[in-house]
Amino acid sequence: MSTSPWAVILGASSGTGAAIAQEIARARGFDVFGVHRGRYLEQAVQVEQDIARMGRRIVMHRADAGTPEGAAQGADAVLAQAGPRSVKLFVHSLASGSVGRLVSGQKDQLHPRQLERTFHAMAHSLVYWAQALMARDLLAPQALLLGLTNPLTESHLHNTAAITAAKAALEIYVRHLAMELGPMGHRVNLLKFGTVMTPAVRHVYSPEAQAHLERVHQHLNPVGRMCTVEEVARFVPVLLGEEARWFNGATIDFTGGMTLQLLDLLLNPRP
């Protein structure tokens, strides 16, 4: 088995999860155990090839990471590949939520199964994986568990009630896990960043809508553009450093001031 530290990354085939997998292998020399559902197979193969070219071990595990069974089976696979006390970084980058309204009485009303699925994937699974990793003694000394979130919980976006509520639950889980794992030397944090272009976004939005999204963010963000997945990924190794060890149970704002001008844009709309 490899003596290098391992990163376990849920949602590693594309978007932010893929960028973090590649950056943590490049910047920190980590081996990577990535979990994905197989929706972006070409991107998953590309991530695998890129990390292998860096001379790091890469395992791409195809499964549903958002269930208790998926967490248990995934942790078993990590143990077989990496051995005990090998996981220095765990990243929860699952985006599998349902959109819809709560009480419309129409086809867009969220079904209980959709609510359950959204909460399992985007919130509860952090706990499932933490339990599975601990039960198998997989966490390396001073490990970091990192969830990813966005500013939705601070405002309102049409049709995202289930996703927003799940993100709020994720934040509470992070705080409680930090209290439980802190005495063992581990940290649990939440990284909050704004809109980034991912394959999922490109799949949901038309090219015209994507262009509109970019124009809006030119006004929203003080820097005048959208954040990128690479910028988010480059910050993750910083959180592993000694300088960041006092972050625990924290929701770290990496939005770049995205929400600062909301009221101004509403009252003084730009062309």
TrEMBL record:
It comes from the Bacteria. Signal peptide: none annotated. One of its GO terms (molecular function) is oxidoreductase activity. It comes from Stigmatella aurantiaca. This is NAD(P)-dependent dehydrogenase, short-chain alcohol dehydrogenase family. Belongs to the short-chain dehydrogenases/reductases (SDR) family. Keywords: Oxidoreductase. InterPro entries: NAD(P)-bd_dom_sf, SDR_DHRS6-like, SDR_fam.
